[in-house]
Amino acid sequence: MAIYNEVQLQRIFIGKLKHGGDLLEELTSVCEQNGISLGRIEAIGAVKKARLCIYNQQARKYEFFEIEEPLEITGLFGNISLRDGKPVVHAHITLSDAHGRAYGGHLAPGTVVFACEFTIDVYKGQQLRRAYDEETGLPLWKM
Ligand code: ZN
Question: Would you say domain 9-142 falls under CATH 3.30.1330.80?
Fold first, then answer.
């Protein structure tokens, strides 16, 4: 059974990140600095290099990989909620190389911004919090 809430759009932020910053850390900082704890995020732009991961469902752990080349952010989508009382950006990203080939995965620290334009929609409603989920081993939302 799906578990979900209805929320209302409260505020919208639009901007760009600083050149050379860590993509995930910069997005998280925008949330921390503005008290954003519930919302959605999207971005486009380019990175100097990327570090992503995929969750190994059998081993129940993230497996990280790096792409050490300039890449275009063709799409970043994610959400914002709380974990241990702090805002967490959970984002997935698709990147393309010089030949238009795509890579994708769960965005990890270590992805370096070349240029990035983002939008954050801030929601008002019941706060979503992440906690350990027995079934998957992931920090999923608890209602
Ligand atoms: Zn993920």
Answer: yes
